[in-house]
């Protein structure tokens, strides 16, 4: 298990969920892993478990990224994974196009999109010395289709999808072997779903509705997304850049339930 041996990686939002699974998969493939998150306790626990290094990083903060650049001036792999839906707040604010507040719209874009922009900018600079590297941006199924009740999330994820291609083409044009690709998960069971699933009897019904809308009739697992990240991070994907990989149990393969 040494597909990433000798490589240094940084994963954002790695304290739990998909980011944690990616950090663990990278470590088990031989990479050095810098675990970053705003959740210090949980992030340190993940780093300890895999023999990695923890650094507090709010991806929406330019000053935090400057700190990362000072601490880690060179890098082989970056995963821009940290993301929010906008439904973390209680009571849950409106996120439809008619009723959403500008402050809520901006807050989602600050983490998801600004965070990815700042991460890509840092990574290009940190990978330039070797002239090679892999940047993996975690977008979403929601970056490919409209989501009326989560418009800021969908907009930010669509912009991540597009920025991935700008970064890929920029690096190629510069003669750099820095690849940039996006992963588009959907319905992966992580703590991100908690505010949307809620508690009580309605929770099982909501879960069942999501499963019924998924062609493979189940939720995905964070480890299944991590496996795709390992592939994109490794030299096996040497000719892949600007690509988007969906991992969604078949949701985006069709347009109706029949
Ligand atoms: N779970 C899914 O079904 C699903 C589907 C599509 C896309 N995604 C995307 O996958 C990524 C990971 O999602 P998840 O399901 O593991 O979510 P999660 O909520 O379980 O974990 C997100 C992590 O990001 C961290 N985080 C939040 N704001 C941050 C900030 N400003 N700076 C740094 N870290 C921050 C949180 O502390 C948390 O550890 C997100 O970008 C999400 O949009 C998830």
TrEMBL record:
Keyword check for Oxidoreductase: yes
One Pfam family of this chain: adh_short_C2
UniProt entry keywords in alphabetical sequence: Oxidoreductase
Annotated signal peptide: none
InterPro entries found in the cross-reference section: NAD(P)-bd_dom_sf, SDR_fam
Family indicated by similarity: Belongs to the short-chain dehydrogenases/reductases (SDR) family.
Protein name: Short-chain dehydrogenase
Organism: Paracoccus acridae
């Amino acid at each position: 298990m040494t597909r990433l041996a000798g490589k240094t990686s940084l994963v954002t939002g790695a304290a739990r969920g998909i980011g944690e699974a990616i950090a663990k998969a990278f470590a088990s493939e031989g990479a050095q892993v810098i675990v970053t998150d705003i959740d210090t306790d949980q992030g340190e626990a993940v780093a300890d478990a895999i023999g990695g290094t923890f650094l507090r990083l709010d991806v929406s903060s330019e000053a935090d990224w400057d700190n990362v650049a000072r601490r880690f001036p060179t890098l082989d792999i970056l995963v821009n994974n940290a993301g929010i839906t906008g439904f973390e707040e209680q009571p849950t604010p409106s996120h439809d196009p008619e009723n959403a507040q500008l402050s809520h719209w901006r807050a989602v874009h600050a983490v998801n999109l600004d965070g990815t922009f700042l991460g890509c900018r840092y990574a290009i600079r940190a990978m330039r010395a070797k002239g090679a590297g892999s940047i993996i941006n975690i977008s979403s199924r929601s970056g490919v289709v409209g989501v009326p009740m989560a418009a800021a999330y969908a907009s930010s994820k669509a912009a991540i999808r597009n920025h991935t291609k700008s970064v890929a083409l920029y690096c190629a044009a510069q003669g750099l072997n820095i690849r940039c690709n996006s992963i588009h998960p959907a319905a992966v069971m992580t703590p991100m779903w908690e505010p949307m699933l809620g508690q009580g009897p309605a929770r099982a019904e909501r879960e069942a509705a999501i499963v019924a809308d998924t062609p493979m009739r189940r939720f995905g697992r964070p480890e299944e997304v991590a496996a795709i990240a390992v592939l994109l991070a490794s030299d096996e994907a040497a000719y892949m850049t600007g690509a988007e990989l969906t991992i969604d149990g078949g949701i985006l393969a069709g347009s109706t339930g029949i």
